[in-house]
Amino acid sequence: MVKYQKNNQFQWKKTKEDTVDEDEDSYLHPFALICTNSGYSNTRAKPKLFFFIFLFLLSCTLFLAPHLFSSNSITSLSFFYSFGVDNGSETDVNTSLCSSVPNGTICCDRSSIRSDICIMIGDVRTHSVSSSIFLYRATDPSGYLTGLTDDDEDEYVIQHEKIRPYTRKWEPGVMDTIAELDLVVKRKDFGVRRSCDVVHDVPAVFFSTGGYTGNLYHEFNDGILPLYITSQHLNKKVVFVILEYHNWWITKYGDILSQLSDFPAVEFHRDKRVHCFPKAIVGLRIHDELTIETSLMENHKTIGDFRDLLDRAYWPRIRGLIQDEERKARLKMEKSTLSPASRTMKKPKLVIISRNGSRAITNEDSLVKMAKSIGFLVEVLKPKRTTELAKVYRLLNSSDVMVGVHGAALTHFLFMRPGSVFIQVVPLGSEWAAGTFYAEPSQKLGLKYIGYKILPKESSLYIDYDKNDPILIDPSSVNKKGWEFTKKIYLDRQMVRLNLRRFRKRLLRAYYYSVARKNMR
């Protein structure tokens, strides 16, 4: 019950007029209550009081009218929510704002801080010259038409939305570099419709490979994983239409794209033909850093399912090579003079992700020798932008432990089998990023994560600064000054020299765990 009371000669009284039954009037918005209930009632009010009440009601009406009678109901709702009003309903995480879209309309979900996504259903046609996607509708149920025109054609616009299809919505600097698309609904029976050059009978997903593309972490976090989240439920019956198209990106991720779509990708701005689709999804959904939230997926897919897709993508390419290596290994073992017990002992494989420049391990050679002395088979991986992902996947998919310093190359943990060990060397000033971007996602994948936070003496910054400098003893205070300080000091100017005696303890833990697991198979 919502109660409105008055004070009459210091005595509180409750009357029928002062009480609003929430069961009867729960549909009333709080703004309606504000405008229609002053909280004070007096049957013998003076004319001046009535005058002020009249002005108050008139002000409320003028203030709310533009919002209550707006043609865009979503805008009206946004107006109310901007005041922090709770509508009292619970949102089902499995229900998207645009889960049900009427034919001939556009629905845009702009509720996420990470990305916008718009759905178009009906006669969808591309027009790359104007960076537009048109949706033609036979009739307009509301009868509402605006006088906007396009290319001086006498076509009436029913609905117009704009979107930049990239998943860094909260970063205006990078979003300004992403091409903006105009999504327009028009009357089919007015003006000239562009004829279809290519007719598709499957939906399209529009997205950009601009922004931070070129950095492995962002390629997966901002692109590949959101593409999987957005399109996997279509079971490969989808065409990808790409803005800021790069041939090298298609080559690099072609194996993965082939597992998500049965059709070649379309380069939006260079392909001037009119492509027609029955449905368009513009923009990508993204959940969290390098992960998938099962509760938000239509069919409860997990990050493990994404890794299974990577298996299907790369396995045909590397199966033959693995089989050849296994045959050679068996022949070598048969000719070996080692005892049967020695021959059956399986050494765990350790892969070290090697860096050049900032955050490199300066005593990497000593680390390799120590790992071998413990009993590991050691391989050093120096990934480059042009390194074929199938080769990296082959190496890490067969490894038991991966070691690397915090950085984009650690995104390769996605290629490791669940149950494997991931050791991240955490330089000064990168604790939060190391935990958020790699530690938590790797554990969700099922890896055994070990974090190694270096001491100030293991950082090259120890030579550059006084031992009591906040840069060494209180990195969080430096990070609070802003990203430019973090990047300049901790990411771009820091090298790592491991205390091998201290680090050995982590390797031993990983070794004994891996040996036990390997010999249980």
UniProtKB/TrEMBL annotation:
Main location: Golgi
GO molecular function, one term: pentosyltransferase activity
Intracellular or extracellular location(s): Golgi apparatus membrane
Keywords, sorted A to Z: Glycoprotein, Glycosyltransferase, Membrane, Transferase, Transmembrane, Transmembrane helix
Ranges where the Glycosyltransferase 61 catalytic domain occurs: 338-423
Name of a matching Pfam family: Glyco_transf_61
Keyword Glycosyltransferase in annotation: yes
Bilayer topology annotation: Single-pass type II membrane protein
Keyword Lipid biosynthesis: no
This protein's GO CC annotations: Golgi membrane
Annotated transmembrane regions: 49-69
Top-rank lineage group of the source organism: Eukaryota
PANTHER family found in the cross-reference section: GLYCOSYLTRANSFERASE
Protein name per the record: Glycosyltransferase family 61 protein
Higher taxonomy: Eukaryota, Viridiplantae, Streptophyta, Embryophyta, Tracheophyta
